[in-house]
Design goal:
Radius of gyration of chain A: 23 Å
Structural class of chain A: mainly beta
Largest sheet of chain B: none
Largest sheet of chain A: 8 strands, antiparallel
Oligomer: heterodimer
Number of helices of chain A: 3
Strand content of chain A: 25-35%
Distance between the termini of chain B: 37 Å
């Protein structure tokens, strides 16, 4: 058959005349080859069934008014190596326990740093969506080339600490409890002898001993690639244009698991815990969750251009990697995708956490439905999500934009190559966001074009984090934009009732891994207190539930160490603090 | 390949034979036998050759043609254009009947006879391109262009060949020139459209294909190509009528059904997709992609057994069809876990192989990049590393070839030849390797001639 094979192949065997060398393109970047011949194209946006009406949504970017003005740098605009492509994450966390979540913006670096060292930025939430840059005040300086971030209170002192995955050496910032942070990477056992390229991370109490352990994803064994060549001389092409090589073809990496000894000191237990894999994965986002409802936290790693990893917690201090057997490693065609971000949520209300993963351009995102039997099914097309394939997709979240009780999906996008526009391929470095409304029947409706200027605006975005920054019951989205200040997206559209729950362990730290179930009649919603996710980022630990018209619900919390507590008739439209063994200890009506 | 390389010798012997005789088994057809006897001219031998072709007797057709050339050479100082074109036509005839070897031989004969036979260079270029021998093809079309820079056919052929060689800018420019010379040629527009599409300029391709449809509304290819581009642009509603027209105009052509099936599948009309894909596999039973998609469509209509059967067909045709292997492993798991495990093992093995190829390719790429800056030791080091990583992977031959060429470039003919021989053992039909080895032999001869003492064994 002529047609399916007619397109330019990935491996172009350039011919050689006599003894004159001809230079051959061996590899293109991820994504291009993945269309294959099976028509992985945009599916039509499905019309809504009769009688179903999408909500009015109006996301606006209020970052400038809020005072979020720091520019995130990731190399130079004329990017020459793959390390400049990936961008950075962002964290929403309450560093000073004032009930207003703050923002930590991870900073990249330049290959040829200038005189002024770049730093990440810590923004203190002043309330009313106003922020103050307190980076210097907090004692945070240049950390290196930052990538991902995750938050967790590693010493159970009630103050949330930060871990940064970096190219070079990772950084652990200990929250001193007085508004300042101290780099204690080495003291905590989190430094590594050599330089590596870490990306996403997540704190997780995998052995349920009450102390947070740490998972770190690593991307490329970059230093072993001798003097990576700048793109003009790399020999790698994407859609015919010279691009930096990678990640495909470069040497992959592994995932690292650190065990917390109970004093906030960590030991690398990758091997003992069964996390060790061959060094052949390009790990990005770490997504934790009890995916099989057995009470033990598992984790998924979205990997770029290689199969995703899924580590099932065996409950004895070890894991087994089950990506292929669960169906999470690849898509419905058995094809690995260029995985970037990942989110967990029970989109269909069946009591099991499903997984949504973003991918490179010319490919769909992937929605894995948890079948409840230890396997997942790629339902992307069935769910109406095989759309917007032209964008390079990064940070993503299940977020209930209209508080109707069904988790919708937000996706940030942006091309990896800033120079792509000058080649006339119709590709743009800055790309719009996507928003998919959950219809509540297992299908999503693409409302990206009608969801407001904050969604339509084009940026080259990477990490995102979700949190209720003004405590009004609707969640905001902070989006990292490369070479620009971040976006702070707020939905000004109408919304239903909601409940926001901060779950604390008996020791008083955010109960990462706690499973929260909110029930009203026959309808149940589940979610978890989570570290990591999105795209190498950290969201508000408080768990948000849209309640529609409900005014009160029952809550059940299965605490990380196994005990379950229930709370009856909890009123909507407030944020509450629940402490293990003590019940609801704080009530704060929405502002 | 051997035909090509020995052609010079064949021709030489044909032209220097002293007697005008055909091989014994080539007794001329009765209709021309008398003519040959009465007047053994180039013309009568060409006529005999044509008759041999009609009978499907290539060997005798070529022998007759060679004899015709010999006689023509003996009779005239200058090439006879009629004879040249008769040889060329005979070649094209062979090509159209699927005999590319015979066609190549005849065309080369014609070109040997008349090196200025421009159309012969074009056709030979096209025949070589059809066999993926693009470098050789380029040499021919370049000669044609030199002879007739304004010939649309030569421009078209050159454009296609150069585009396939990755010289897309040059290819597009040549095809645009062809279109400008022949604006009423639907084929020229389609050729340009195809190259533009291959270079991701889908809008440009759409313009050209639309013009082709306007010029040749009865052309199934024009409708198919426009339908494809529209499909690639995500405009499936517009693609559908074109694909339907193509299937009406050429119901024996599988492609339109294939793309219509993709559209049906996207729309969730899986039963219709099944029907269309069944048509495709009937028309083209060895289309693994169609079998795979048929399996997917069956699966979507809960016909798992039929899906499994279709996927098995796909892997029977293409044992390394990883998508089909994956789906077989998943679908068979509940009822036949052992068979499922076997398919999963095959799938996993393929994944591993792919990873190795990726890594070896990157090293190869680095080597080429080093070579581009004339850092030959680094290039060689990277190629050697790539070969080590590759093991028996799919690009082993190419790596040896490129290492060999690099070593030659550095002046290390001995090791270069060694690598090229290794490459040739893995890829005997590679013309580049053969050419390089010939060149090495020539260099050696030159060296012996210029420094005879230094080449003597100790």
């Amino acid at each position: 058959m002529r047609s399916p094979a007619r397109r330019t192949p990935l491996f172009i065997s350039a011919a050689i005349a006599a003894l004159v060398l001809a230079f051959t393109l061996f590899l293109a970047r991820n994504g291009l080859s993945q269309m294959a011949s099976t028509g992985a194209k945009d599916q039509p946006v499905r019309p809504l069934p009769r009688g179903v009406k999408a909500p009015a949504v109006n996301f606006r970017d209020v970052a400038a008014q809020a005072g979020l003005s720091a520019v995130v740098v990731s190399g130079d605009l004329d990017q020459t190596t793959v390390v400049e492509n990936t961008g950075t994450g962002v964290a929403i966390f309450d560093y000073d326990n004032d009930g207003l979540p703050d923002i930590f913006l991870v900073q990249g670096d330049r290959l040829n740093p200038g005189s002024q060292a770049l730093t990440p930025h810590l923004y203190h939430n002043l309330g009313g969506l106003r922020f103050e840059d307190v980076t210097q005040k907090a004692g945070i300086g240049h950390t290196g080339w930052g990538q991902g971030v995750c938050a967790g209170d590693v010493d159970n002192d009630g103050n949330v600490d930060l871990f940064l995955g970096q190219w070079g050496h990772n950084v652990f910032l200990h929250n001193m409890g007085n508004g300042t942070f101290r780099d204690e990477t080495r003291d905590r056992g989190l430094d590594r002898p050599g330089s590596r390229w870490s990306t996403g991370c997540a704190f997780i109490d995998y052995d349920r001993d009450g102390w947070l352990d740490l998972v770190v994803a690593n991307y490329i064994d970059f230093d072993s690639q001798q003097s990576p060549r700048p793109r003009e001389r790399s020999g790698c092409k994407w859609k015919g244009i010279p691009v930096p090589c990678g990640p495909r073809g470069l040497r992959g990496e592994t995932v690292t698991l650190y065990h917390n000894d109970g004093h906030g000191h960590f030991t690398d237990v990758t091997k003992q815990a069964g996390i060790e894999t061959p060094p052949q994965y390009f790990g990005f986002t770490v997504l934790t969750g009890d995916f099989d409802n057995d009470g033990w936290p598992d984790f998924f790693v979205a990997c770029d251009s290689t199969p995703s990893l899924y580590f099932h917690n065996k409950g004895n201090g070890t894991f087994e990697e089950m990506g292929l057997t669960t169906g999470l490693a690849v898509n419905e065609d058995g094809r690995e995708q260029a995985g970037m971000g990942a989110a967990a949520g029970d989109y269909d209300g069946d009591g099991y956490l499903d997984i949504f993963k973003t991918n490179f351009s010319n490919d769909t995102n992937t929605l894995y439905r948890n079948l409840g039997d230890g396997t997942f099914s790629d339902v992307t097309t069935r769910a109406g999500l095989a759309v917007q394939t032209r964008y390079v997709k990064w940070g993503t979240a299940f977020v209930d934009i209209d508080n109707d009780g069904w988790k919708d999906l937000f996706v940030a996008a942006g091309h990896v190559y800033p120079f792509v526009e000058k080649y006339g391929l119709g590709e743009e470095f800055r790309q719009p966001r996507q928003l998919y409304w959950n219809r509540g029947d297992g299908q999503f409706f693409d409302m990206s074009s009608t969801a407001g200027p904050g969604i339509l605006a084009k940026h080259s975005s990477r990490g995102i984090a979700v949190g209720d920054l003004d405590n009004d019951g609707s969640e905001e989205i902070v989006v990292v934009n490369l070479f620009e200040p971040p976006s702070l997206l707020k939905n000004f559209g109408p919304r239903g009732n909601a409940l926001l729950i901060r779950a604390l362990t008996a020791s008083g730290r955010d109960a990462i891994g706690a499973r929260i179930t909110v029930t009203s009649g026959r309808r149940k919603q589940i979610d978890e207190v989570r570290s990591g996710g999105y795209f190498i980022s950290q969201g508000d630990f408080r768990v948000h539930f849209g309640l529609g018209r409900l005014t009160k619900v029952d809550i059940a919390i299965r605490w990380p160490q196994g005990a379950t507590e229930t709370y009856k008739d909890v009123a909507a439209n407030q944020w509450i603090v629940v402490r293990e063994g003590r019940g609801i200890v704080e009530h704060h009506p929405f502002s | 390949m051997k035909i090509t390389m020995s052609l010079g010798l064949v021709l030489f012997s044909a032209l220097t034979a002293s007697s005008a005789q055909l091989p014994k088994e080539c007794s001329p057809p009765t209709s021309v036998e008398q003519a040959i006897r009465d007047n053994p001219s180039a013309k009568t031998y060409m006529e005999a050759g044509t008759r041999f072709v009609d009978q499907g007797n290539l060997k005798c057709a070529v022998a007759s043609s060679e004899e015709a050339v010999r006689l023509a050479k003996a009779a005239h100082d200058n090439a006879d254009p009629q004879l040249t074109s008769a040889l060329g036509d005979l070649g094209v005839l062979r090509a159209n009947k699927g005999d590319t070897d015979g066609a190549e031989r005849l065309l080369r004969l014609a070109i040997e006879y008349d090196p200025n036979y421009e159309r012969g260079h074009v056709n030979l270029g096209l025949i070589l391109a059809k066999q993926q021998r693009f470098t050789e093809a380029e040499a021919e079309v370049d000669k044609a262009l030199k002879l007739a820079p304004e010939d649309a056919a030569a421009l078209e052929a050159a454009g296609r060949v150069k585009a396939r060689l990755g010289k897309s800018v040059e290819g597009v420019a040549l095809l645009r020139k062809a279109v400008a010379l022949k604006p009423q040629s639907a084929t020229a527009h389609l050729e340009l459209g195809m190259v533009l599409a291959d270079n991701y300029d889908l809008e440009g391709a759409l313009t050209e294909n639309s013009e082709a449809v306007r010029l040749a509304p009865g052309s199934a290819f024009a409708h198919l190509d426009r339908g494809r581009v529209l499909f690639d642009l995500g405009r499936k509603e517009e693609a559908q009528p074109d694909l339907e027209s193509a299937s009406r105009l050429a119901p024996e052509m599988p492609e339109p059904y294939f793309f219509l099936a993709l559209i049906a599948k996207q729309d969730g009309h899986y039963k219709h997709a099944v029907t269309l894909l069944q048509t495709v596999v009937k028309l083209e039973p060895r289309n693994a992609a169609a079998w795979y998609l048929l399996g997917q469509s069956f699966e979507q209509t809960s016909q798992t057994k039929a899906a499994i059967a279709a996927w098995k067909q796909a892997v029977a045709i293409e044992p390394d069809y990883s998508q089909a292997l994956w789906n077989l492993a998943r679908a068979l798991k509940p009822d036949d876990p052992d068979e499922a495990a076997r398919f999963m093992a095959r799938y996993s093995e393929l994944q591993k192989k792919r990873l190795v190829v990726d890594q070896a390719s990157t090293l190869g790429n680095d080597a080429l990049a080093a070579g581009r800056t004339h850092d030959w030791p680094e290039a060689i080091r990277q190629f050697q590393k790539a070969i080590e990583v590759c093991g028996d992977c799919a690009i082993k031959a190419d790596l040896h070839k490129k290492l060999g060429l690099t070593e030659c470039q550095m002046g290390d003919i001995e090791n270069g030849e060694k690598e090229l021989r290794l490459a040739q053992a893995l890829k005997p039909a590679d013309p580049d390797i053969e050419r390089a080895l010939e060149r090495i032999a020539a260099v050696r001869t030159e060296r012996v001639a210029s420094h005879p003492a230094s080449e003597k064994p100790h």
